[in-house]
Amino acid sequence: MTKFFFLIILWSITFTIDAQDIKDIRNYSLLGQTQKGKDAVDKFLSVPKNALKPEGWFYKGVLYNEASKDSTKSAIQNGEMKATAFAALKKYRELDPKVPLMEERNNSPIYDLYVGYYSDLGVKAYLAKDPAAGFEFFKKALEVHDYIASNHLIGNNGFKFSALDTTLVLYSAIAATEAKMLDDAAIFYKKLTDADVSDQQYIDAYQVLAERYKTNKDKAGFADIIAKGKKLYPNNIEYWIALQIEEATDGVGKPEVFSKYEDLMGKIPGNYTLLFNYGVELYRYIYSDEMQKANTTEYKNKLPEVMKKALVIKSTSEANFLLANFYYNNAIDISEEARNLKAVKPDELKKKKDLQAQSDLAMTQAIPFAEANVALFAKIAKPKSSEKINCKQSLVILKNIYEAKKDAEKIAIYDAKIKAFD
Question: What is residue 236's predicted lDDT score, i.e. its pLDDT?
């Protein structure tokens, strides 16, 4: 009987000591005596049976979080204390799913951890030109955010996190990019594209991933991100199409590349950029060194067909000049062929005459496009140097054509315009 009574007394004393320890720890926290509270809670939780009590873990989380705000400590040290605080608060929730101590504070201790990682450590590190550290802290802030969101923890005034913190995810991706951690950046950019975010500030996510998939030859990933880009950012349609052209034609030689353009025309009908680029590629191939002695008829027939389609969509000085220049050069080529033909027999004489007629026709075909380029140039308020060069060259083409046609009046008009350019 005496022994049993003694055990009751001993248990009562132990319980009183434990209760007193928690009370002291709570008071240290309330009074802002963070270091004393931190030491006391570590000592308290070092006792195995105390480690099973949720209150100790709650106050460890609170006190370590407060300690992590010490400006005399390094960011790494404060980050480590925040990590300890986060682990402690999660442990508290495991031991007491009802979390009364958290609820009476509207979950503010764990929300405060999020703010600390995000602003106090992440933003400061990034602004201090340490993007790698900023990325790590942003990543931890997202970990806290995701824990709060997935467990539906409500903050002050009924505040709730959305499932995805798009701004913080974007900052994480940017910091990782600046730290040359491109694989990590891609992971965070993909979080945004997977969520189909469409605000203009997030367009980089789609552009970066599109470039990455293109470079890595990831055709499925590229096709998916281009489709999303077109749907969510239709105002940037030319950018997405330019990437499609690059992806489809990258590393493909000529003339094989022209079949790629034909395929793209089926996938992207009625697009000026695609058609103009196709025309440029044809022009360069026709007048390349390798084609000097080759038969270019197929490509010469194709080029005006493609460029006229482009001009129907959008009449630009570049497209008009390219077609004017093509027709004029083609006229010169045909005329040269006619001159080099030794025409003696009737059939040879006929061929020479036909060639000259074709040359004359090509020159006539060049006129409306050269004139259109000149007219468009007149409407440009601040022309670029390339536009000035193209316009002047169009005037030269027109003058040369009318010299060939022996039209003195037109020669004088274009000669004066050329001199006005000098």
Answer: 94
Rounded CA-CA distance 316/61 in Å is: 66
* Dist CA 275 CA 310 (whole Å): 5
Structure tokens at 114: 């999020």
C-alpha of 287 from chain center: 36
In this structure, how many other beta carbons lie within 10 angstroms of the beta carbon of residue 93? 20
The owner of tokens 């489809």 is: 248
Burial state string for 232-243 with b = 16 or more CB within 10 A and e = fewer than 16: bbeebeebbbeb
- What is the pTM for the complete model shown? 0.81
Judged against a pLDDT cut of 70, whether residue 181 lies above it is answered with: yes
Cβ atoms of 137 and 79 closer than 8 Å: yes
Query: Which sign does the torsion angle of CA 221, 222, 223, 225 carry?
Result: positive
H helices present in 287-345, as ranges: 297-313, 317-340
* 8 Å CB contact between 264 and 248: yes
* Confidence at residue 6, expressed as pLDDT on a 0 to 100 scale: 34
Question: How many helices, marked H, and strands, marked E, lie in the chain?
Answer: 20, 0
